[in-house]
């Protein structure tokens, strides 16, 4: 899909961060957009900014973990825009807790958004994507869909799930000769609000201060949301199977490739050493 002018893209999590940056970048290329988020205020701001590029913009406030709402939105997007070419399942949240201390409600919350939201967005739009000349699904995983880290078991589960789901889907589409393709995205540290809005449970093995965690994340996040959007759109145009965003993502990918299991020992040892100096 080299030319995005007059295409239609549906984007979740578009009120801020990568989702908003994608909406504006696509609109700048002449792509009409349908956007959604649970944050109505931020979504309204994205609509205002995107409309300045002279494209058609529609929006819907909803929770991507609500399957019926997602299916209704997909139907409405097709009705409003006369079709859809690109679906970007971007909405995501964060959770820090050990498996032992994690509440089931928190685990279900993050899986509902980060995993099921991707599944619902993919399946809800597929009937409409099949009607397009060119179509593409972009699902946002993470570097934590490549390696696992302590206190991130739920986030890891969701993002590894997105990776496996999307890679399998890509193969199925190729086997069937479908007009649809798909790409898995693995961002490293991106300057967004995800750490600030994370749910955090303090643990015995790692003392977690939410404000300090958000501040540390802001310091190490090397890539802007706009930079991430640029990389994603490039991957779309080149029909990439996987896109790693940021130098940190590429280093982590190599880390896992060269130390496929022993990286876990490296990380757990690092945490133990860090705890001694707290």
Descriptive labels:
278 residues, alpha/beta, Rossmann fold, seven-stranded parallel beta sheet, 9 helices, 50% helix
How are the secondary structure elements laid out?
Elements: E1 8-12, H1 17-28, E2 32-37, H2 40-51, E3 57-61, H3 67-81, E4 86-89, E5 95-96, H4 104-129, E6 135-140, H5 153-176, E7 180-187, E8 190-191, E9 199-200, H6 210-220, E10 223-224, H7 225-237, E11 242-245, H8 247-258, H9 263-276
Helix pairs in contact: 1-2, 1-7, 3-4, 4-5
Give the gist of this structure.
With 278 residues, the protein is of the alpha/beta class.
Topology as a string of helices (H) and strands (E)? EHEHEHEEHEHEEEHEHEHH
Distance separating the two termini: 51 Å
Contiguous helical run count: 9
Global structural class:
alpha/beta
The major sheet is characterized as: 7 strands, parallel
> In the CATH hierarchy, what is the architecture at level 2?
3-Layer(aba) Sandwich
CATH topology: Rossmann fold
CATH superfamily: NAD(P)-binding Rossmann-like Domain
How confident overall, as mean pLDDT?
91
CATH class: Alpha Beta
**E-strand count:** 11
The percent range for strand residues is 15-25%
Shape from CA axes?
globular
Strand order of the largest sheet: 3-2-1-4-6-7-11
Total count of domains: 1
């Amino acid at each position: 899909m080299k030319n995005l002018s007059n295409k239609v893209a549906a984007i979740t999590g578009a009120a801020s961060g990568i989702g908003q940056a994608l909406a504006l970048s696509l609109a700048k290329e002449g792509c009409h957009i349908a956007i959604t988020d649970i944050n109505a205020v931020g979504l309204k701001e994205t609509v205002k900014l995107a409309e300045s590029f002279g494209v058609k913009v529609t929006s819907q406030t909803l929770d991507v973990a609500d399957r019926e709402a997602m299916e209704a939105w997909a139907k409405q997007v097709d009705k409003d825009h006369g079709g859809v070419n690109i679906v970007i399942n971007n909405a995501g949240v964060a959770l820090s807790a050990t498996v032992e201390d994690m509440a089931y409600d928190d685990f279900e919350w993050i899986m509902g958004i980060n995993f099921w939201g991707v599944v619902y967005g993919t399946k809800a739009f597929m009937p409409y994507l099949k009607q397009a000349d060119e179509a593409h699904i972009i699902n946002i995983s993470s570097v934590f869909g490549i390696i696992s880290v302590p206190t991130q078991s739920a986030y890891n589960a969701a993002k590894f799930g997105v990776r496996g789901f999307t890679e399998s889907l890509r193969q199925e589409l190729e086997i069937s000769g479908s007009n649809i393709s798909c790409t898995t995205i693995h961002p490293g540290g991106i300057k967004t609000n995800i750490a600030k809005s994370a749910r955090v449970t303090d643990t015995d093995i790692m003392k977690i201060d939410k404000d300090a965690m958000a501040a540390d994340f802001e310091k190490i996040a090397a890539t802007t949301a706009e930079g991430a959007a640029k990389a994603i759109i490039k991957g779309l145009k080149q029909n990439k199977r996987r896109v790693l965003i940021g130098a940190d993502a590429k280093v982590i990918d190599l880390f896992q490739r060269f130390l496929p299991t022993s990286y876990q020992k490296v990380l757990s040892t690092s945490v133990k050493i860090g705890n001694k100096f707290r």
